[in-house]
Write a structure and sequence with these properties.
With 406 residues, the protein is of the alpha+beta class. The protein contains 17 helices and 14 strands.
Length: 406
Amino acid sequence: MANDDYDPTAPAVMADPFAAYAEMRANCPVHRFEGLENPFYTLFRYDDVRAAQMNPAVWSSRYGSGPSYMKSIGLFADGPAHAEFRNIFKPRLSPGALLQREDEIREIATGLVDAMLARGSSADLHDALALPLPVTVIARFLGVPDADLDQLKDWSDRLTELGFGQNAQAYLETYAGVCGFFDQYLDAREATLANAGVSEASSEHVGALLPDDWISDAVCASYQGRRLRRDEQHIILMGLLVGGNETTTSLLTNCVWRLLERPERWAAVKANPDELVETALEETLRCDPPTLGMFRTSLEAVEARGVEIPAKSKLMLCYGAANHDPEIFENPDEYRLDRSKDELRKHMAFGVGPHTCPGAPLSRLEARIALRLLIERLDNPRLDGPTQRIGAYNFWGRKSLPIAWG
């Protein structure tokens, strides 16, 4: 592939991005792509990707995590403002808080596996388990009733498909629709407070007057000495919706796909689940990261490996390429269950630095519970037809994963 030919949206690259990443790491570690509405640069080498994430003074999130330029609010900020905004929703993702929800998550996953097995001896794992598990869990955390699960997933999928420069107008229309979706819940919570005579909401009302969930947090949280504006409430709920769905779905489908590609892998995990379930999930995150890259914006003109990057340029941090860098990982294109924990800890599937994905512990927990159930309950599982990747160029997962058992 000639350097000028690299196109992350090209069918050949979409089918196997890691082969293209290898060529770019070796021959063009900093690349400018002009094929979408907003041009952007990409970093492909591990050290460069890591360094950029650790330097928000130059590579900022204040203009959004995609190639389009977003308003600098909430999560799209740096420094103390960003940390304070994360702390609005992060307590529910702490180890202690997740431990209290573990039985609930296991019950949801068990019900989905029960239903899948009751329907016969084959299924599309994406539709039967990997998709509904995280959307159900995130709906419970948000405070959205199960009746709206299909709507939640539809919004999440559309935001994922459109949110990275493919069609800005369609994305903005979808974004407005999601804002309207959340407004009905936000308005209802605020009306409850008003009817109770509360003129100044605070965290003490969460779990008392209001349900104990993220929507109530968004209504009652204090941020920089004030309540959240409606656009900030939208940003926080939107981020939780999208981040809480796609990553876990793809982590689970990618992991089962890789294990069933080579039946001896599945057999090894089944023989030693206490050790290898976690290893399999972390190696999947390394080898097949659900998010292939996220974006930053340069606050000043900067040089990267001899390439001059102007101020206010968009930059894709290619996690997928970094996770396959042979300078860091031995035989990086090989899926291995014998990788050391020290090596696996270096992967960047959830990013590093101040903008590390706050939902990583929840994603790992859901995937671990689901994989343990599948290991325990599927008899002789196998792939049952071709898989299909998801449609967005910077995400990597199986949109369809037919399996059979018995």
